[in-house]
Amino acid sequence: MEYINSFYHFRDLVVGVDTNIPLTDQTYTTAINFDNAATTPPFNHVMNEIVKFSPWYSSIHRGAGYKSQVSSKLYDDARNVIAEFVGANIDHHSIIFVKNATEAINKLSNKLLPLYKDGVVLSTCMEHHSNDLPWRGKYKMDYISIDKYGQLSMEDLKSKLVKYDGKVRLVTVTGASNVTGYINPIHKIAELAHSHGSKILVDGAQLVPHAPVDMKSFDSPEHIDYLVFSGHKMYAPFGTGVLIGPKATFMKSPPDYPGGGTVKIVTHDHIEWLDPPEREEAGTPNIMGVLAITGAIKLLNELGMHNIENYERMLTDHAIDSLQNIPYVELYHNPIKRGESVSIIPFNIKGLHHSIVANILSHEFGIAVRNGCFCAQPYIQRLLNISPEDTKKYIGNSNLPIPGMVRISFGIYNTIEEINTLVKALYHISLNRKFYFERYKKDLYSSFLN
């Protein structure tokens, strides 16, 4: 494909890259989006596929009409596309379509409860709330610690696996942090977990769109038992996520969402459930979302995940080299291990609250970033060295601005020129902090919560 030979042409693949937006001075500028870790814009290819399929859109499964048969085949074939993309085994694994990674993890936490309710679930101190909160109140939990840079402590993982002496049933870990971008050694973690009788879940929401992922053969000690990821972070809108795990997991209990599409036979006295994955996909499936995510995956495959990873790493290296030379900018990363992350950079400007910096970049320069705690508040508290005692003063106090960070995150369509624009903007902001504080201090109480 022609785009493979020129990284810059990645930009041509994405909807809306040349959109003009208004600034506070009443002029217009081309929007720059550095908030890809939250949601990516869609691929043109995906939107074209949706339009092309629309005349054939119909009910999924059990429909005798021709359009229904076409829609059903597309939906069922999508599981093969997913399996090939992440190295799943279609005979061993169930590939279940859900709304997003959050729903996937919640579903798995429900499904494992009959099996693991007396066991221990090990999460980590660097997780998104979606890979922490679903496990609370159901299981005995503990957290693997992090070092001063926010990277996972493998030594603490080993220690806790030994401490619980075979009682750990699941190690649940992010593939790449949505705050720092750090990539965890998921296969080493898997091997350790398996050696102590545990399984592993990888939250792949930030890893799968940016780097090659291989679940590996289930007879390998390094295999990944469960994997989740979301389409909306990989250029595929319309709300579809994926949960992958052993079929046996989903055969051992009723679906957590029973209803239409989950059963073989129902009487007032008896229910016979369908086999997975169908029993876990209650109601009318989101065929448009599934078409979107498989269309995005096909294009990502064509471009090559290694090519994408290398290009985004080049963008990240250039941004870090530039940002660390700006006065008053504080970067939160390990300078020795820069290559061990996806394209996410958190920072602050001394003397300016993160919400002020984000609003200035948006209103004055047309640059979209994210600010706050990125749904990972315990991780942010540790990265900012906020003690548990200090954290308590923010609880129930809506008049106290919550500490956090500014996050920039790149996609394949971002460019060196856009980063240079950001660097110039931040340099200007850093040298005019008092002026901007007075102009934007009203925003301290409006947009910082998560």
UniProtKB/TrEMBL annotation:
Co-factor(s): pyridoxal 5'-phosphate
All copies of domain Aminotransferase class V, residue ranges: 32-422
Catalysed reactions, as listed in the record? (sulfur carrier)-H + L-cysteine = (sulfur carrier)-SH + L-alanine
Q: Which residues form a coiled coil?
A: none
**The organism of origin for this protein:** Alkaliphilus flagellatus
Q: What is this protein called?
A: Aminotransferase class V-fold PLP-dependent enzyme
The entry's keywords: Aminotransferase, Pyridoxal phosphate, Transferase
Q: Which family does it belong to?
A: Belongs to the class-V pyridoxal-phosphate-dependent aminotransferase family.
Which Pfam family is one of those matched by this entry?
Aminotran_5
Query: Which superkingdom does the taxonomy of this entry point to?
Result: Bacteria
Can you name one GO molecular function term for this protein? transaminase activity
